């Protein structure tokens, strides 16, 4: 993916009706998420940056394919050897990573996943007889008996997926094709060829997360655009130098300087990292990969005159796309309460990533430390434990208590807590304040007065005092009845 300066798109449609809530209790699935990456690596250094980060989480996601593709920015070449070069660097640090968490795949296991996608651009490169190792890999993965969904994390053009879908349509019975396509979950970084619009139109049932149009309308740009009123230091070149690139061994040394935008592709897999917050099947619930709502976006909201190079077509059905988040960044306080709300509130379609970005970056830095340090000299994330159910029902106007007092830290670090009502999610979108202070392990709230059942989401952030500080979360879903 290639990034450029971005426009602020202020007007976005309101959220469609909320979908039915998942079954109790509210916990992330214990099974890892399956994922295949489609990457136009070498079109921009940011794909290399994202692969470096991804491999630091290779024990937490079931990687099933690493496919080199084309895109609008690189129409006639693919570079699978560039993926292998990063894996060669990973091979040098994998033994040390395994000292910190179990399950890191061997470098040979990752090498076995590298494939070539369509060697040409867009829809012109798909059709009968144009299957590639990459498209065949997707078809094979969908044909397995594994009941888990298969995420396609698209960092460039999507025509390799289009070829896989066309092959399924031509070679499978309608029932089998429906079963295979029902497993697919696509998160693509904007449209970087003309295959994305074709896929969404041709397969209207397909789960698809995208910010269509110019990159100025890309919610994913929250990973590297400046948040108003904050220091933004964790995306600075100096921070990347000190925490990732320099003094962090052979793998950190592979991380290139920013040329257009830092890691524009990374949000396409961040929601699959199990951190206690993300529920990948519910993009409207928010998480490290951002927050998205299901609706049909008008072209006017998609930065139609902005940079992308791909012709923008009207959407023909609802897709998971940009949602607006409002939040006030917390800042450290020298005296008194440990953190206080900043002076400036932020309301933006990039806010679904912005609100977590320092946590995301600190987690990255800690894992890069794992590549060279022993367990005793590195930081590891806290374990968040709720003292109350993940789903609760209370009556209108009733006081209720939420607690994460039993949370622990594997390194023995002290913990900080921050509770908040995620007002954009659920059926009650007016902020529900807590009773006293939000930065203690046990807090009380008072349910709003309602005349029909309403749902509200509460998040606790638990952050250790290690270096860098690491954060994990839990979500409580509250149903308020009259």
Structure description:
The structure is a single chain. By secondary structure, the protein is of the alpha/beta class. The chain folds into 2 domains: 33-322, Ribonucleoside hydrolase-like (Inosine-uridine Nucleoside N-ribohydrolase, Chain A), CATH 3.90.245.10; 382-482, Immunoglobulins (Immunoglobulin-like, Sandwich). It is built from 12 helices and 18 strands. The protein has helices spanning 46-56, 80-97, 107-111, 133-143, 159-171, 174-182, 195-202, 237-245, 249-252, 267-270, 351-354, 357-370; strands at residues 33-39, 61-68, 114-116, 150-154, 184-188, 207-209, 292-295, 319-322, 325-327, 330-332, 339-341, 346-348, 391-395, 399-403, 415-426, 442-446, 454-464, 471-481. The strands form 6 sheets. It has a 6-stranded parallel sheet, sandwiched between helices. The protein has a 4-stranded mixed sheet with strand order 13-18-17-15. Strands 7-8 form a two-stranded antiparallel sheet. Helix 1 (46-56) runs parallel beside helix 2 (80-97) and helix 4 (133-143) crosses helix 5. The model is unreliable at 2-29 (pLDDT under 50).
């Amino acid at each position: 993916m290639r990034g450029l300066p971005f426009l602020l798109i202020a007007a976005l449609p309101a959220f469609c009706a909320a979908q039915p809530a998942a079954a109790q209790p509210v916990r992330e699935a214990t099974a890892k998420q399956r994922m295949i990456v489609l990457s136009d690596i070498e079109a921009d250094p940011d794909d290399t940056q994202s692969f470096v980060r991804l491999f630091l989480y290779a024990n937490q996601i079931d990687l099933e394919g690493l496919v080199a593709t084309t895109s609008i920015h690189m129409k006639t070449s693919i570079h699978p050897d560039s993926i292998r070069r990063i894996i060669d660097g990973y091979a040098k640090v994998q033994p040390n990573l395994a000292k910190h968490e179990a399950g890191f795949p061997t470098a040979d296991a990752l090498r076995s996943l590298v494939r070539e996608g369509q060697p040409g651009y867009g829809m012109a490169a798909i059709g009968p007889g144009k299957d590639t190792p990459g498209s065949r890999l997707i078809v094979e993965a969908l044909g397995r008996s594994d009941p888990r969904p298969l995420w396609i994390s698209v960092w460039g053009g999507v025509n390799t997926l289009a070829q896989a879908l066309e092959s399924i349509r031509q070679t499978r019975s309608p029932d089998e094709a429906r079963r295979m396509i029902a497993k697919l979950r696509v998160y693509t970084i904007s449209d970087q060829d003309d295959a994305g619009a074709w896929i969404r139109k041709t397969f209207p049932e397909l789960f698809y997360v995208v910010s269509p149009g110019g990159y100025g309308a890309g919610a994913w740009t929250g990973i590297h655009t400046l948040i108003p009123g904050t220091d933004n230091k964790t995306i600075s070149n100096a921070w990347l130098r000190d925490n990732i690139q320099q003094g962090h061994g052979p793998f950190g040394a592979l991380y290139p300087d920013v040329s257009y935008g830092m890691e524009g592709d990374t949000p396409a897999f961040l929601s699959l990292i199990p951190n206690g917050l993300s529920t990948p099947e519910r993009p409207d619930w928010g998480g490290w990969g951002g927050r998205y709502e299901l609706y049909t976006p008008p072209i006017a909201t998609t930065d139609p005159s902005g940079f992308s190079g791909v012709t923008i077509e009207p959407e023909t059905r609802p897709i998971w796309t940009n949602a607006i988040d409002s939040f006030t960044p917390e800042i450290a306080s020298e005296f008194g309460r440990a953190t206080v709300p900043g002076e400036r509130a932020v309301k933006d379609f990039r806010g679904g990533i912005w609100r977590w970005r320092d946590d995301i970056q600190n987690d990255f830095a800690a894992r890069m430390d794992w590549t060279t340090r022993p367990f005793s000299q590195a930081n590891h994330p806290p374990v968040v434990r709720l003292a109350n159910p993940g789903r609760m029902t209370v009556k209108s106007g009733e006081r209720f208590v939420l607690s994460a007092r039993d949370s622990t830290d594997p390194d023995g670090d002290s913990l900080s807590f921050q509770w908040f009502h995620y007002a954009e999610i659920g059926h009650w979108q007016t902020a529900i304040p807590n009773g006293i202070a939000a930065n203690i392990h046990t807090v009380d709230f008072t349910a709003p007065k309602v005349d029909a059942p309403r749902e509200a989401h509460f998040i606790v952030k638990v952050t250790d005092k290690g270096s860098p500080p690491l954060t994990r979360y839990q979500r409580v879903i509250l149903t308020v009845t009259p």
